[in-house]
Design brief:
Blueprint lengths: L1 E11 L2 E11 L6 E19 L3 E18 L4 E18 L3 E9 L4 E9 L4
Antiparallel strand pairs: 1-2, 2-3, 3-4, 4-5, 5-6, 6-7
Length: 122
């Protein structure tokens, strides 16, 4: 399960900065302990398609993934900090719904993320 919290700041017309964090964990498995935290930042360019209805965006960014897992029945424990770069693209619908696709890389291979969530714009 992954939860994302992020916020944006738009100091210029059609450009915004996004700062956030993904938090991941595996619930309901007593023999496995896993969590990950991924603080990230993006700069993106926004294109309004239908004013106050639909907008598209694309951007670049990066962050670090902090991961720790433990297999209790095997006595295995591992922690790691992994730098990542990201390309993201998405759509805002009706100033209320955000749908995005992000491709991250840890410079060894791609990591994909699709997300949908509520957006409050003010």
């Amino acid at each position: 399960m992954i939860t994302t919290v992020h916020g944006t700041l738009a100091p210029f017309r059609n450009v915004f900065f996004e700062l956030g964090v993904d938090i991941g964990f595996i619930p309901g498995k007593p023999d496995v302990g896993y969590y990950s935290m991924h603080p990230f930042g993006h700069v993106a360019f926004f294109l309004p398609v239908i004013e106050n209805k639909v907008g598209l965006y694309a951007g670049l960014g990066g962050g670090i993934v902090i991961v720790s897992y433990e297999f209790r029945n095997e006595g295995t424990n591992h922690s790691e900090n992994i730098p990542v770069a990201a390309v993201t693209a998405g759509m805002n619908l009706l100033n209320a719904i955000d749908i995005s696709y992000t491709v991250r890389t840890n410079f060894k291979g791609p990591i994909y993320k699709v997300s949908a969530g509520y957006v409050y714009r003010f």
